[in-house]
Amino acid sequence: MTGRLGVFDSGFGGLTVLADLMAAMPQTDFLYLGDNARYPYGTRGFDTVLEFTTEAVDYLFRRGCPVVLLACNTASAKALRTIQQQFLPARWPDRRVLGVVRPSVEALAELPPGAIPGVTVPGNATGNVAILATPGTVASRSFVMELEKLAPGINVVQQACPMWVPLVENGELDGPGCRYFVRKYLEPVLNGPLEISRMLLACTHYPLLLDRISEITPPDVQILTQGKIVAERMVDWLTRHPDFAARLSSGGGSWFLTTDDTARFNELATMFMTTPVVSEHVHLPRLC
């Protein structure tokens, strides 16, 4: 029995990841779920994020998805490990849930997919990197902790960018106000004591500001976006797990679910996807 590849986010940002997944895997069917009614997750505690994320994953499994990607940094940081270690073995042992933090860290450290902590691997595992993220992701230190395990020789600068998500969701992708807030958060990173070589946009909204970010960032600083990283690593993961690849349906279609108003979702999702989006409203049952 085959099913769609599930993609979950607390809101709209995961759509940038979905767009890159669709480009990298054009024959695969996708089912996107945005928990917009309870967005944002970044300000919520670990237990609440785990509860909400588990409900979403369970719902996508019940809709037939054999694999679910958490295209949400907060859900990946606060809920993924518990879901993998406790929820899946207890309820869905034949399904898999993946996240965006680990593949992003591997790419930031220039390590191969599935790098093992403590094992020397080819690549540049030293240097100075920056992580641009929401305040919640920065406070969680999820990227820093993963980097400390995989590449302890790397120095990390974190920068919270609290105004970038509101700018994106209000369509303010250009103009003096947008440029002011892009510069406000970039200058401390680019003019700080460490000379940065790579910079990760660790929020799935931020690629929509890539043109403004690139205007300020020196050309010798590499800017990494999560969508392309995750899409590349998902293709690699499915190659290494052909049993799950065979369980994904191959019609090349995409379906969209939201826990909030569909008209609002369709409007903003169309901006993220650059093509018209029609969504279905769903309710996520509480787990016993």
Structure notes:
It contains 13 helices and 10 strands. With 288 residues, the chain is α/β, with parallel strands linked by helices. The protein has a 6-stranded parallel β-sheet, sandwiched between helices. The chain has a 4-stranded parallel β-sheet with strand order 6-5-7-8, sandwiched between helices. Helix 1 (14-24) packs across helix 11 (226-240). The two termini are 27 Å apart. The relative contact order is 0.19.
Task: Summarize the SSE layout with pairings.
Layout: E1 5-9, H1 14-24, E2 30-34, H2 46-62, E3 67-70, H3 73-78, H4 80-91, E4 96-98, H5 101-108, E5 127-133, H6 135-140, H7 142-150, E6 154-160, H8 164-169, H9 176-190, E7 198-201, H10 210-216, E8 222-225, H11 226-240, H12 242-245, E9 254-258, H13 262-273, E10 279-281
Parallel strand pairs: 1-2, 1-3, 2-9, 3-4, 5-6, 5-7, 7-8, 9-10
Helix pairs in contact: 1-11, 5-7
SS element count, helices: 13
| Whole-number mean pLDDT | 92
Which structural class best describes the helix and strand composition? Answer: alpha/beta
> How large is the share of residues in beta strands?
15-25%
- Which series of helices and strands comes N to C? EHEHEHHEHEHHEHHEHEHHEHE
Q: Choose one word for the global shape.
A: globular
Radius of gyration, in angstroms, nearest whole number = 18 Å
* Low-confidence segments: none
Number of strands: 10
Distance between the termini: 27 Å
- Identify the quaternary structure here: single chain
How many strands, what sense, and barrel or not for the largest sheet? 6 strands, parallel
How are strands sequenced across the largest beta sheet?
4-3-1-2-9-10
Helix content: 40-55%
